[in-house]
Amino acid sequence: MSSEEETSENSSSSFTLPPSSSSSASSPPPASHFIGKKEDIVKAGRVTKIVNGCRDILVLYHQGKFHAMDPRCYPATLITFMLCQHQEFNGRLCIVCPWHKYKITLAEGEGLYQAVEDPSAKPLTIHWRSKGVKQRIHKVTEVNENVYVTLNTSQEAIESDVYRTERYSTDLHKPQPKPKAKK
């Protein structure tokens, strides 16, 4: 795969991107990265791509829209959203981590959970709540049947950033010492 194959939407409160957009312009937005042909991504449903030579991006196509986000579940090192299912929770389209069962909104990268309002009240009243933004979301743009992603470069720390850093990548691929045999 080339170094530009994923797409997304928007993220973090200090860096607001408009939702995925279709454009008849003849050139992609400045600082965007080519992900692939629209037809190929639609057919696959999702792709991963390395952009800027260092950042993994997951691009999803669902119900006529492209979404792009960091591909690893925010509390995990090796769990990727590549095989996750889409589900709607409280009217919001989410991707669900296959390991943790965390629900992450595709539009904002917010973590959702169900909370009990008053555990002593019967019957229990359960509401969907936000944990805040947990996954970095990126902007997806279509130009002339090509799909591009513009990285969310907000300086606001987001938990999924931990698993896309150079240190993480270096440590992940570093040979681990072999355990010493017990005598």
From TrEMBL:
<feature type="region of interest" description="Disordered">
    <location>
        <begin position="1"/>
        <end position="34"/>
    </location>
</feature>
<dbReference type="InterPro" id="IPR036922">
    <property type="entry name" value="Rieske_2Fe-2S_sf"/>
</dbReference>
<keyword id="KW-0479">Metal-binding</keyword>
<dbReference type="GO" id="GO:0051537">
    <property type="term" value="F:2 iron, 2 sulfur cluster binding"/>
</dbReference>
<dbReference type="InterPro" id="IPR054716">
    <property type="entry name" value="Sol_Rieske_ferrdox_dom"/>
</dbReference>
<dbReference type="Pfam" id="PF22543">
    <property type="entry name" value="Rieske_4"/>
</dbReference>
<protein>
    <recommendedName>
        <fullName>Rieske domain-containing protein</fullName>
    </recommendedName>
</protein>
<keyword id="KW-0408">Iron</keyword>
<dbReference type="GO" id="GO:0046872">
    <property type="term" value="F:metal ion binding"/>
</dbReference>
<keyword id="KW-0677">Repeat</keyword>
<keyword id="KW-0007">Acetylation</keyword>
<keyword id="KW-0411">Iron-sulfur</keyword>
<feature type="compositionally biased region" description="Low complexity">
    <location>
        <begin position="9"/>
        <end position="26"/>
    </location>
</feature>
<keyword id="KW-0597">Phosphoprotein</keyword>
<feature type="domain" description="Soluble Rieske-type ferredoxin">
    <location>
        <begin position="34"/>
        <end position="153"/>
    </location>
</feature>
